[in-house]
Design a protein that fits this description.
Elements lengths: L5 H29 L10 E2 L12 E2 L2 E2 L1 E5 L5 E2 L10 H4 L8 E2 L41 E8 L14 E5 L2 E5 L4 E4 L7 E3 L14 E5 L4 E8 L11 E8 L5 E7 L11 E9 L3 E11 L5 E13 H6 L3 E8 L23 E6 L9 E8 L4 E8 L37 E5 L2 E8 L10 E8 L4 E8 L4 E10 L5 E9 L6 E10 L8 E6 L24 E4 L6 E9 L13 E10 L3 H7 L6
Parallel strand pairs: 6-18
Antiparallel strand pairs: 1-2, 3-22, 4-19, 5-15, 7-33, 8-9, 9-10, 10-11, 12-13, 13-14, 14-15, 16-17, 17-18, 18-19, 20-21, 21-22, 23-24, 24-25, 25-26, 27-28, 28-29, 29-30, 31-32, 32-33
Length: about 600
């Protein structure tokens, strides 16, 4: 995370070009060495531990992607409505709760508890929420909210785990949540709503994400459909739709079913993300199987699909390649809670990373490498400073973000270390995930950030975002056009007599604070998470699986992000409505305010 000198930068640029060629060559060598073990599209373990003294883990061999074509549907003209939330009874599926992962089977011989690295080399604690930014107003270094908008939820449901997503181009904003979607054409002053329950057909539930493709001027929107929630037969699917940026009412949908990944269409897809690369849009998801009559499910595989950006923008049949991985979802005593995410900011090589592995959990990061010109994916394992893997599926491995006197309940009981968020900036790959509390140095859950050098995939610095008075979880990271990293997470807890209901914190890793970030607790919470969300493990509450941050376009030093908080502390069961504030913000340092103001200037559009 340290700044490179000019000489180092020149050497690094040459090395980066050489090593990127090396990575592609490595894929070819591994392919010739024995690709049959990998199969097509589905991972298979290959190799064996070395004979050296240190334990070496087996690594899946090279993997060939499946290929196919997504057929476009007819353009859908969505009816946009004013800010008037729909009646709950008309919009809630039979089982309103978000799907729950099923705890895995007990391990007959569990490994001893891992001792995490909590040494000073992983950084100092971030300031408490009572901390106020030290630079005075208008100081160029000050971390500032350039826009602070409360989104008026216009359709669907505004409560319980909003899991918001967003992106912005100029004055045009598109925003989604688990149960609603909105857009603004005037930088957040006025909003119109789209009803995800009806716009692309029945059986909608949850997990929406959105991302702008600035080169093609398209807004992409991913929606998830689970028929079982309405007692309908058959498996689920995703809709990947796109509209002209600023239009937001005429959408070209593409349907993605489990068969696009080589699996049976009686399964479902869940927990989705989307990233823009050089030639492709990358979509990640998971294949899941529900248990009859319940909301519990097993995770069968993590999945990654890339599809031609040009085809999507033209509204023609879109060529895609896809892979699935069974080695990145865990299993055994830890259950199955892993997934994949592609770093925001990639170009002609895609990466993904997982901490949820059959062996080496809490000590290892598995990297997938997929050049755009290749059908083959290679796998690289890297050791990381040890951390306690956090999961609600195993007694003793849950996160505890409650205040010490329990006035603030455990809002991160559903968080896991399997949620790895990623970004690429300045020749480095950044990966962030939540880790379990440990001892007096990490008394609350915290966020581990590990930085990998792209040229040779070597682990560089690691840094913990932690506090001794509150927990941090659900991180999201994104690069700006300079390669600096914007960050958002959820925080809450309290030590002694202090109480901090769950809210959100922003941070920046840049040339001013490359290692220990500048932070701002911009959104304090006013109430607890919903209760009774996971009776299987006794969790007191769940907050949501993700937040969102995106780099501003064009220009550097500015990010757009989403967050949420309770507006009061009235009791809120997870199956009933509870008022939430959903924030859509733009932030950066005061020195870069002109970048934001230029971007929203109507005279420049």
């Amino acid at each position: 995370m340290t700044e490179l000198t000019r000489r180092q930068k020149r050497r690094f640029c040459v090395a980066a070009s050489t090593h990127r060629v090396w990575l592609v060559a490595l894929a070819t060598v591994l392919l010739l060495a024995g690709v049959d073990a990998a199969g097509a599209g589905i991972s298979a373990a290959a190799g064996a531990p070395s004979s050296g003294g240190a334990k070496r883990w087996s690594t899946p061999g090279p993997q060939r992607a499946l290929s196919g074509v997504l057929q476009p549907g007819p353009v859908v003209h969505a009816q946009a409505g004013p800010p008037a939330p729909a009646a709950r009874a008309q919009r809630t599926p039979r089982r309103p709760g978000h799907p729950r992962r099923r705890p895995g089977p007990a391990d007959p011989a569990p490994a001893p508890a891992l001792v995490p690295d909590v040494s000073p080399r992983l950084g100092a604690p971030v300031p408490d929420p009572d901390h106020r930014p030290t630079p005075p107003p208008r100081d160029p270094r000050r971390l500032t909210l350039f826009r602070d908008t409360s989104v008026p939820v216009t359709t669907g449901l505004p409560w319980w785990k909003p899991e918001p997503s967003t992106d912005q181009s100029g004055r045009d904003i598109f925003a989604t949540g688990n149960f609603h979607a909105e857009f603004s054409r005037d930088n957040g002053r006025n909003w119109r709503g789209l009803d995800p329950y009806t716009v692309f057909g029945p059986d909608f539930c949850c997990d929406q994400v959105t991302k702008a493709d600035f080169s093609y001027r398209r807004q992409h929107w991913v929606l998830q459909y689970i028929p079982a929630f309405n007692e309908h037969p058959g498996g689920g699917h995703l809709v990947l739709a796109n509209s002209r940026i600023g239009d937001f009412v005429d959408w070209r949908p593409y349907t993605i079913t489990p068969s696009a990944f080589g699996w049976s269409d009686d399964l479902n897809l869940d927990y989705n993300d989307v990233v823009i690369g050089h030639r492709f849009l990358y979509l990640t998801t998971r294949l899941i199987r529900f248990h009859d009559g319940t909301d519990d499910y097993d995770v069968l595989a993590a999945a990654l699909l890339r599809v031609s950006r040009a085809d999507l923008a033209a509204g023609r049949p879109a060529h895609y390649d896809s892979i699935t991985r069974t080695d990145t979802i865990g299993g055994g005593a830890y259950g199955e809670d892993g997934e994949l995410r592609v770093p925001q900011g990639i170009t002609d090589v895609a990466y993904a990373a997982s901490t949820t592995l059959p062996e080496g959990k809490g000590r290892r990061l598995r990297l997938l490498v997929w050049p755009e010109k290749s059908q083959w994916v290679t796998t690289v394992d890297r050791d990381v400073p040890p951390f306690r893997y956090m999961t609600f599926q195993v007694p003793g491995r849950e996160g505890d973000c409650s205040s010490k006197d329990k006035t603030v309940t455990n809002w991160c009981g559903g968080a896991t270390s399997g949620g790895v968020f990623a970004a690429r900036g300045r020749g480095h790959l950044w990966f962030a995930w939540a880790a379990q509390q440990y001892g007096t140095q990490r008394p609350f859950p915290y966020v581990r950030i590990t930085v990998v050098r792209e040229s040779d995939l070597r682990v560089g610095l690691s840094h913990d975002v932690y506090s001794r008075t509150i927990g941090h979880a659900y991180p999201a990271i994104a690069p700006d056009e300079r390669g600096h990293i914007g960050y958002i997470d959820a925080f809450g807890g309290g030590a002694g007599n202090s109480h901090y209901f769950p809210g959100s914190m922003i941070a920046v890793f840049d040339d001013i604070t490359p290692v220990s970030p500048s932070v701002d607790y911009f959104l304090p919470g006013k109430g607890n998470a919903c209760s009774g969300s996971n009776p299987q493990t006794g969790d007191e509450g769940e907050w949501g699986d993700y937040l969102t941050v995106r780099g501003w376009h064009p220009g550097g030093g500015v990010w757009i992000a989403t967050a949420m908080a309770r507006v009061d502390d009235t009791p809120a069961d997870c199956s009933t409505a509870g008022p939430m504030t959903i924030k859509n913000i733009v932030f950066g340092r005061e020195r870069d305010r002109h970048v934001y103001e230029r971007g929203i200037d109507d005279n420049r559009r």
